[in-house]
Amino acid sequence: MSVLVDIVHPAHVHFYKHILWNLERRGVPTTIVARDKDVTCQLLDNYGFSYQRVGKSGHTHLLGHAAELLARDLTLVRLTRRTRARIILTRNPAGAQAGRLLGVHSVFDTDDGPAAGLHYRAAAPFAHAITTPDCMRADLGPKHVRYPGYKQSAYLHPNHFRPNPAVLGHLGVAPGERYFVVRLVAMAASHDGGESGLPRATRAEVVKRLSRVGKVFVSCEPPVPAEFEELLFRPPPELLHDALAYASLLVGDSQTMAAEAAVLGTPSLRVSSWTGRLDYLDELETRYGLTESFHPRESARLFDRLETYAQHPDPHALIREGHTRMLADKCDVAEWYTRYVTEHL
């Protein structure tokens, strides 16, 4: 009656952590298989989770991704048999593929859906259930199960998260002092092929403009650009969301962090060629006004909106009403997921 959880990205640690703790409190044994990517393993260590490390990020071509997927499949099959897992939870193709091979109920969660391309196509046919936010417009068939929330509602919902003011000491800012977070991603994930984010020149101009009115902290996937080394976010990675909650504005090319900022009530400006193609971000933008999106070519429009937020005395106030409505509409996804899993054990 155990559950196996397949984790390949730091965001997955956050998504599954409260679900894992909920299951443990209910006496359900769990096994975690983790991929060595960025701070994934460091987060698991800091949260006190035991796990098996399988695979490492860094592949830049399809053959490398395929070889890593195969190795992960084989490991998950072996561990599922050994632990006699009844359910596999995953946001990755390997978990869905291993579950189908063994006849074990696999639950593939996605907020990108078909927009993720090969990543989705390699997982969805094998999964026994596909869970998504209820804002997803696509009908994924009889396996599709919708929840009224976002991935980020599993760990940043007020039931679970209260920002820790101790992060301000780590950052060297005083309570009430304005600061900004700039998030840069490597665009090296399997679903990011051919996509683009903040252009280098635009990054530099964003940091320059924000530095005129407050401190700037850069959160960056490696390799870190030399010009941002002194601005790098250096507190423990588990405090990143606390820093984001107190920030005046997030600017970057991360889809995940834009949604995290929205759930926290922090305004964000997202620059990505994914603009207009991800349902959950479209809803956060058009229904609740919690984030704004820009194509990489739209630097002039980006700078105009950046100045609006940077010069406003309380940028959070600009989105407060939409944030209140969003929280009233959406559920605690960790609790929803825990009920779903226990009902299928």
How are the SSEs placed, and which strands pair?
Layout: E1 2-7, H1 10-25, E2 30-36, H2 40-46, E3 52-56, H3 62-83, E4 85-90, H4 93-102, E5 105-109, H5 118-121, E6 129-133, E7 144-147, H6 166-171, E8 179-184, H7 200-211, E9 215-220, H8 240-246, E10 249-252, H9 255-264, E11 268-271, H10 279-286, E12 292-294, H11 299-311, H12 320-329, H13 333-344
Parallel strand pairs: 1-2, 1-4, 2-3, 4-5, 5-6, 6-7, 8-9, 8-10, 10-11, 11-12
Helix pairs in contact: 1-2, 1-13, 3-4, 7-11
Structure description:
With 345 residues, the protein is an alpha/beta fold. It has two domains: 2-157 and 331-344, Glycogen Phosphorylase B (Rossmann fold, 3-Layer(aba) Sandwich), CATH 3.40.50.2000; 166-329, Rossmann fold. It has 13 helices and twelve strands. The chain has helices at residues 10-25, 40-46, 62-83, 93-102, 118-121, 166-171, 200-211, 240-246, 255-264, 279-286, 299-311, 320-329, 333-344, and strands spanning 2-7, 30-36, 52-56, 85-90, 105-109, 129-133, 144-147, 179-184, 215-220, 249-252, 268-271, 292-294. A seven-stranded parallel β-sheet has the order 3-2-1-4-5-6-7, with helices on both faces. Strand 8, helix 7 and strand 9 form a beta-alpha-beta unit. Helix 3 (62-83) crosses helix 4 and helix 7 packs parallel to helix 11. The longest helix has 22 residues, at 62-83. The termini are close together. The mean pLDDT is 92.
